Amino acid sequence: MDISNLRLTIVSLLAATGIIAAPAQARRIVAHTTQQSLAMTDIREMQQTFSAEIIEAYEYEMVDEPPMFPGGNNALVQYINSSRRYPAQAYKNKIHGRVLCSFIVQPDGEITHVNVLRGVEPSLDREAVRILGSMPNWRAGRINGNKVAVYCILPVTFRL
After folding, report:
1. Per-residue b/e over 95-124, b at no fewer than 16 CB within 10 Å?
2. What are phi and psi of 4, to 5 degrees?
């Protein structure tokens, strides 16, 4: 084995074991449109109620500078708490829980592809999608100083 092949083998092993980090690569994400996501639209006007789109985005942990809500995490919590409108029927029926959602922060900071990963109840799921879909633009994530699309996961909690 010559020296260049030996170096390549060592670097590959170190990267595979996590001792050195490999360059971040965008992950292909299949963004499904769900009933919760469609809550923001008039379904009667749509020809198809479900769709899938492949998006290239980086995972939150893989970027040099992760995306950030304007004002930081405390401002994000305040935004969610002040925007949340507990659905009346869910409140009456004492339904509560945590809706786990995903979304993409685009290079321009726009929030897109909001989706429910683990729901609680349809009205709470729709409210979580509404809240996240109406968020102001975030500061975009960056890799090597370049703005990139980043896949994020965020819970929205509903407490009685």
Report:
1. bebebbbbbbbbeebebebbbbeebbbebb
2. -70, -40
SS3 content of the chain, % helix, strand, coil (to 5): 35, 30, 35
Q: For residue 63, give both structure tokens.
A: 């970027």
pLDDT tens-digit profile of 49-62? 555 677 789 999 99
**pTM here?**
0.72
Please choose, from the candidates 75, 69, 83, the residue with its C-alpha nearest in 3D space to the C-alpha of residue 127.
Answer: 83
Distance, CA of 138 to CA of 114 (rounded, Å): 14
Q: Which residues contact 29 (CB under 8 A, 6 or more apart)?
A: 54, 55, 56, 57, 104, 151
Q: List the one residue out of 26, 58, 79 whose CA is nearest residue 141.
A: 58
Q: Is the dihedral of CA 84, 93, 122, 152 positive or negative?
A: positive
Return d(Cα 70, Cα 83) in angstroms, integer: 15
